[in-house]
Specification:
Blueprint: E1 6-10, H1 14-25, E2 32-36, H2 44-60, E3 65-68, H3 75-87, E4 92-97, E5 100-102, H4 106-110, H5 114-118, E6 123-127, E7 144-147, E8 155-158, H6 159-168, H7 174-180, H8 187-202, H9 211-221, E9 225-229, E10 234-236, E11 268-271, H10 273-283, H11 287-295, H12 299-306
Parallel strand pairs: 1-2, 1-4, 2-3, 6-9, 7-11
Antiparallel strand pairs: 4-8, 5-10, 6-8, 7-9
């Protein structure tokens, strides 16, 4: 499946988007879709520059489909709406944002893994960005591992899995989500996640809600799994002033693991509890005080301390 279709979610990063397009078109790929939200008043100049560039790509036949919103929907609605549009036309596809650069050979490697996702009821996505160091992996020589965690930085899913999420998430309860989070992650980490989810819901009013937190919550609730590649197959270049959620380097670093000879024979290990526990703990760091602060809605006072 080297002709895997690709959806690019673009907004106002013109220079980064050019890198993304160059890296993608240098590999085998299926049809390229691009979805872009309409500008806010403060972003109008940058967004219009991106739109001019995208229209030129469409005219040249470099991209195949372009959806330009006429009204700014905010990050959550714009992203989920773009993915909805993508899966109205495709059964399976790779989703990247305008700050995700595919490394050389990525499309060839993942084409051999996609059938596993297609044929498994409980696997919801394939994650291309690895943030866990080799010494925290149970089987670092395998191509990938099973995980309970999703990633929004280069991922593959199917129309069936995505449409299930879009239809069923409204009926998922917080109790189901809490029970679905593995006990190995720790009680307070689980509580911190639920509080983060509740805070994310409140952000819906000012169009700053994060869509991927809901996607993770749904996978937890359904006891779903993902395939997490042990090497990093993307270069995430989104740490700048244009970023909505990340303006500084994260606690978890991208892991190339280039010194390890990975067996590229489609070996996908079992659920790596230790790798997931490490990643979730870092993501939900300071869980007890973080839970208390979010419970009392004092987030703004501690934003600079914990880089929320």
């Amino acid at each position: 499946m080297s002709s895997l279709p690709v959806l690019i979610l673009a907004y106002r990063r013109l220079d980064a988007l050019k890198h993304v397009i160059t890296a993608l078109t240098g590999q085998e790929h299926g049809e390229i879709y691009v979805s872009s939200d309409a500008p806010k008043n403060s972003d109008e100049v940058e967004v219009n520059e991106v739109r001019i560039y995208l229209k030129s790509l469409l005219d040249q036949g470099i991209i195949d489909h372009l959806k330009l919103r006429e009204k700014n929907l905010g990050i959550s609605a714009a992203v989920t709406g773009g993915i909805d549009w993508f899966f109205q036309n495709e059964k399976m596809g790779l989703i990247i944002e305008d700050d995700i650069v595919l490394l050389e050979g990525t499309m060839h490697t993942i084409s051999n893994i996609v059938p596993i996702l297609l044929n498994s009821i409980d696997i919801y996505s394939i994650n291309l960005r690895n943030e866990v160091p080799p010494n925290r992996l149970s089987h670092p020589f395998h191509l990938g591992r099973m995980s309970r965690l999703v990633s929004s930085h280069g991922w593959i899913t199917s129309a069936i899995k995505w449409n299930q999420f879009r239809t069923d998430y409204r009926y998922v309860t917080r109790r189901q989500i809490f029970r679905g989070i593995p006990a190995e992650f720790g009680f307070w980490q689980k509580k911190a996640f639920i509080e983060a989810l509740k805070r994310n819901k409140r952000l819906e009013q000012n169009l700053k809600q994060s869509w991927d937190l809901n996607w993770q919550a749904y996978v937890f609730a359904k006891l779903g799994k993902t395939i997490q590649l042990n090497q990093n197959f993307v270069d995430y270049i989104g740490y700048d002033n244009f970023s909505t959620h990340h303006t500084s380097q994260p606690r978890l670093k991208d892991r190339q693991a280039s010194d390890i000879k990975v067996q590229l024979d489609d070996i996908i290990g079992d659920w790596d509890i230790y790798a997931d526990k490490f990643r979730f703990k870092i993501g939900m760091r300071h869980s007890i005080p973080r839970y208390i602060v979010r419970k009392s809605r004092l987030n703004s006072l501690f934003k600079n301390i914990w880089n929320w």
